[in-house]
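Can you make up a protein sequence with its C-alpha cells?

===
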Amino acid sequence: TVTLELGGKSPVIVDDTANVDDAVQKIAWGKYMNKGQTCIAPDYLLVHRKIYPEFMPKLKDFIKRTYGSTPEERLRNPNYSRIISSKHHSRLVKMLHFAVEQGAQLEMGGQAEETERYIDPTIITRVPLDSPLMQEEIFGPILPVIQFEKLEEVYGIIRQLEKPLALYIFSNSKQNIAAILENTTSGGVCVNDVVLHFLHLNLPFGGINNSGHGNAHGYYGFKAFSHERAVLKHSRFSPMKLMYPPYTRRVQRLIELLLKYF
C-alpha cells in the first residue's frame, strides 16, 4: 500500500452568509501559523463581493493586532516565524514581485528581509490566474484574495488549478455548503474553520490527484498500512465437484445456473 500527501493549493471560500469576524480570525491564524509553511495552510481566498468591503479591513486589522501594527513590529515579534531556507525565501519574493509586475495589487505587506528570511504578512489582489502565485503551492505568508459574485465562478477557478489537499468553506447556508461540496473535489474539507480536520483522528487525511493518494490517521491509517489476507476454508464435500470435467450436458446446465444467479 502506498499513501502520499503532496500538498496543493487549498482554497478558502467565504460566501455572503459567513460570519466575517469569525472567518477573519480563523483564516489569518491558519494562513500565518508557521508563516504559511504547512501543507494544509489556506493558499488563496475566494470572497463574495457583498462582504468584501467589510472582510478586507477586518482581516488587515486582525493581522496587525496579532503580529504588530507595522512591519518593524512584526519583524521583532517572537510569535511570527521565519522562512525555512534562503532558497525558499528567494522563491517567494520572486513570485510576489512577478505578480505585481503582472498587475496584481498589494493590499498589505510585501516587505522582505533576506538576512532574517523574513516576509511580512502579505495580502494581494488582482492576481492573474496564470501567475506563479496562482499556479504553484505558495507555502508562505502571501495570501491572494479573489472576489466572486456567483458560486459558479468559484467552481471554475478551483477546477483550473491543481486538486487541493484541503478545501475550506465559511458559510451559514446549508444550500451553499452542499453545492460547493457537490461541485468540487479535494482532500479534506473544513466548514467554518481551517486546518482542524488534520487533528481529528476519526477523519481520513489525504489528498486526491495532484495533492496525494490514499488516506491516513486513526482507523483509516491502520487500514491503509495493514494487509487484509483472505483465507477460505472448505470441507472435502464441495458442490463445486459437480461442475468438474467432463462437461456433460448436465454439468453445463449447472454452470449456466450458477452464472445466472452469481
